[in-house]
Amino acid sequence: xxxxxxxxxxxxxxxxxxxxxxxxxxxxxxxxxxxxxxxxxxxxxxxxxxxxxxxxxxxxx
Length: 61
Prior knowledge:
By secondary structure, this protein is mainly alpha-helical.
């Protein structure tokens, strides 16, 4: 229903962006790697560092 709400409330100029966002969302939800990455993040075993850690290291700008 959210798709139809977004499409119904979008202006002609915004429709392409709404369609793009929904297409990317569908691709993300259908990608089997998404579940693995989410599980790794929750377990703390994902590669990389949290954004909050990086921001603390670099301090305020």
